[in-house]
Amino acid sequence: MRPSTLVYVSAELTPGGATAALSARRRSTVAAALARPSGRAGLVLLAVTLAVAIGAPLIAGQDPFALSGAPLSPPSFAHLMGTDALGRDLLSGVAHGGRASLLIAAAVTLVAVACGVSVGIIAGFRGGLVDDLLSRAVELFQVIPRLFIVAIVMALFGPGLDRLILTLGLTSWPTLARVVRGEVLATRNLDYILASRALGASPGYIAARGLLPNVMPGVLVMAGLLFGQALLTEASLGFLGLGDPSTLSWGLLVGQSQGFLRVAWWLTAFPGLAITVAILSFNLLADALSAVRGGR
Amino acid sequence: MTRWYLLRRLLQVIPTVVGIALVAFLLIHLAPGDPIVALAGEHGDAAYYAFMRERFGLNESLPRQLATFLARIASGDLGYSYVQGRATLVVIAERIPATALLGGSAILLATVVAVPLGVLAARRPDGAMDGTVSTLALTLFSAPTFWLAQMAIVCFAVATGLFPVQGMTTAGAEQSGTRHFADVARHLVLPACVLAAQEMAVLVRLTRSALIDELARDHIRTARAKGLAEFWVVVRHAFPRALVPALTVVGARVGHVLAGAALVEIVFGWPGMGRLLLSALQTRDSPILIGLFIVVAFSVVFLNLVSDLLHAAIDPRVRLG
What we know:
The structure holds two protein chains of two kinds. Chain A is mostly helical. Helices cover about 75% and strands about 0% of the residues of chain A.
């Protein structure tokens, strides 16, 4: 009887079994988050944002770079958001610009999540000197002023999407790493991890199958916030005139508006509103998810 | 014990400060082209470049250069702006008071407004008041700072003329004493409110969640059980302890405040470090850019340290734990 008991126990305690149980719980976490008012509002706003970005050619027929009306004409039926200083349709600009902005933010989030999760898991799981060194690195990256360093990189290296995404991604991960490290520290000595260790699972297997599923909800919350931050920084760089001039993005649009503040309020109002709605949607979703998980 | 905490916390600053200098060094050397351009700017002549090359030891090995660079920073030498014709540190130092005034008033304003709002929201979690306050906070948190600043100008300065559009003082007006003070204050209102908005959003959420946690504790139940009025339960028993995270997070938010201040300054033409950043970006004045990076990062480290020590002074668990 003893061996079979052991097999039975280990089957339940293997990371694989735990993962199955966890993934069911994870699904219900997401469902519960979307059932909250903030989660639902976030989902609606996100859907609107994505629909506008994806359906840009349908919503705004004109080429965003084409001269389609009198310069600086206020919003009208022909140009719902007005036109810019060259007579280009602003609605087309906002719809098409969303594509670049959202893609840039997604790439930044991906880089940051990859860094943050790796650093957090390694620091929490290995402990000791590795943890000390990585934690110092996290502290360093947390005090580095992100907007300043990205602006300086753009000025010294010249504007470009690659360096924008890399610099933003590589400076955005510290908070995420802290969260992941905390969760790993709380899980690393739980029975199912000890059991799979005792069964001889390799550290890589334990990290991927045992720890990773457990930190995912926390990562999801942080990823939502990071996405919003990336959109914000891209827009801020555009405002500073450091965006890539060949890529039409929300940042580029708001960058052009400052000079016309007194004469053309719409040049500021609509791109800014689009950025706010997009960021708000991610923040609402992150908020709902963390509320379901017991944080506030 | 307390002395040990102080020592440990002070020692922690060293690797961070060295790390910041290292990042600045890397920026200079990774930038395309000759590092002399990043150090001395694009506008120098051959003799000046040769002088700078000698001064920063650019003809020596990389480790020696790093040592020279660190020694220069340690002695407060951040280089020389060829564009401005003055020492970098002097140029930056002139801008600090304006940024400090803007950032300081914004933090003060945010705290004064946010803490009571957070308390109101926490009184009935998920109630109507909480919903309104939390939604407002999240929306403000999501709006780009420079956009709020631009909209404030469009709505309150251009349309109504209530406030000045640009600057810190009225141009051409030679004023002194209280007149000068009133003039600066009038120019400060809009930028400070805009900068405060985002900090307010963070502080509201923080105060709210800290107070909700605090109101669930045993000593609150005891206070309620002995028949204390709810107002005094909140104000006397829950509030002081819920205030701690709000007080300490201000230090951790300094980096955000400075970045926000830079954007607000640019929109409002406020003569602080943000305006300096923009002009240095436009003239590719790299000594100023690197200098600003170092000064801002060091200020963040310093103010984080102050806020941590403050936290330790209020909460014995920090310094003894």
